[in-house]
Amino acid sequence: MRRLAAPCALLVLAAGCGGGDDESSGRTVTTAPGATVTVEAHEYSFDPDRLVVERPGTVTIRLRNDGDLAHNLRVLRDGEEIGGTPSFPSGGSRTAKLRLTRGKYEYLCTVGDHAELGMTGELEVR
User: Fold this and answer.
1) Using the 8-state DSSP alphabet, how is residue 51 labeled?
2) Global pTM?
């Protein structure tokens, strides 16, 4: 029984180590054109933080604000804003319908310094 104590203690310690308060999921969601995909807003991250659309077309992004602060989701391509949601308080949701062509985009929260604090994501249309 004593032989198991040290390895078990190491497992418990390792499970407790991690990213602190960073809620970033590192999760990718793949969707088809015409679909609605939900993105959750937290302080200061999006879940998922990567979206892949299978081919060009229209996609609806539903932003659900699960944070304590106001958030939005704005989509940019080559630094130019192409659309997104307005800013809104916690506990609600808003949608944005976007017509997307093949390529890479980014999404971010433009409220205050939220993007600088990590509230960004990637969007790719294949």
Assistant:
1) E
2) 0.80
